[in-house]
Design brief:
Number of strands: 7
CATH superfamily: NAD(P)-binding Rossmann-like Domain
Strand order of the largest sheet: 3-2-1-4-5-6-7
Radius of gyration: 17 Å
Bound molecules: 1,4-dihydronicotinamide adenine dinucleotide, butane-2,3-dione
Number of domains: 1
Order of helices and strands: EHEHEHEHEHEHHHE
CATH topology: Rossmann fold
Largest sheet: 7 strands, parallel
CATH architecture: 3-Layer(aba) Sandwich
Structural class: alpha/beta
């Protein structure tokens, strides 16, 4: 399984799963374009990637802005000398009872978690077609894209939407040898879960740390997921070994949701 010398763009690369994916792909020999809305942390990840002996470049972009996503893909191609894979990883959580959801809540999360994936799909697919070669589009869904989670209803809806987009894009682009798949992590110990845990505490009175613990206790393999666990699947989906897989939303959760 190899991604050696592939040019790969990762969104949400400043921290958490995106950073973990970038480091794993760099270890495997890929050259990386690191994209995030948070410019300050990107340079540190770039240095970590370069220390592994591959090329890295950074680009600050808000994935909800179509022009910025297209510019990020152009930048990646220019700086890395090619463009082979996009990983539409950036996303935000939202913990809210459905009763309390207002139009601005929907607008904010839809624009990042759904629109951002649409722009990433479009920008990558048009680049692959312009270059006249195959390509891979890999999107972040979740266990919450397979089961709706209480207090994470709208977030779950966005992750179901990512699965739908993944299937539709796989069908639309297959004739160009572009594959489109999604990864569906479980409970990963990143800043996103710190935020989710805190919001559950505020809403339900559960002591801090207890919601995270409750979810981790429900994992069959008995431990929380790490970004490296997720990165192992993303590395496979980025490699030529996954060439015959398209339109799938693959669970990597240590045993929470069974499909
Ligand atoms: N942490 C978890 O347990 C799980 C996470 N996921 C998904 O994995 C992805 C990564 O999650 P984590 O690393 O845990 O989150 P995180 O919150 O630690 O990192 C997310 C990154 O995305 C960036 N980002 C947010 N909005 C952006 C925007 N508009 N434009 C560009 N970058 C933006 C942030 O600056 C941050 O660097 C997300 O799509 C999330 O929904 C899925 C399942 C489980
Ligand atoms: C953040 C997330 O996707 C879950 C299910 O925890």
């Amino acid at each position: 399984m190899s991604v050696k010398d592939k040019a790969i763009l990762v969104t949400g690369a400043s921290q958490g799963i995106g950073r973990g994916v970038a480091l794993r792909l760099a270890k495997d020999g890929a050259n990386l374009a690191l994209v995030d809305i948070k410019a300050d942390k990107l340079e540190a990840v770039k240095a970590e990637v370069e220390a592994l002996g591959v090329k890295a470049t950074t680009f600050t972009a808000d994935v909800s802005n179509r022009d910025q996503v297209f510019a990020a893909v152009d930048h990646a191609e220019r700086e890395l000398g090619g463009f082979d894979v996009i990983i539409n990883n950036a996303g935000i959580a939202q913990v809210k009872p459905l009763d309390d959801v207002r139009p601005e809540d929907l607008e904010r999360i839809y624009r990042i978690n759904i629109d951002g994936v649409v722009w990433g799909i479009q920008a990558a697919a048009s680049k692959f077609r312009a270059r006249g070669h195959k390509g891979k589009i890999i999107n972040a869904s979740s266990i919450a894209g397979h089961d709706g989670f209480a207090l994470l209803g709208v977030y779950s809806a966005t992750k179901f939407a990512v699965r739908a987009l993944t299937q539709a894009a796989a069908k639309e682009y297959a004739s160009h040898q572009i594959t489109v798949n999604a990864y569906c992590p479980g409970i990963v110990g990143t800043d996103m879960w710190v935020e989710i845990d805190e919001r559950f505490s505020e809403l339900t009175g559960t002591p801090k740390g207890e919601t995270y613990k409750k979810y981790v206790d429900g994992i069959a393999l008995g431990r929380a997921q790490t970004p490296d666990d997720v990165a192992a699947l993303v590395a496979f989906l980025s490699s030529d070994d996954s060439d015959y897989i398209t339109g799938q939303a693959i669970l990597t959760d240590g045993g929470i949701v069974y499909r």
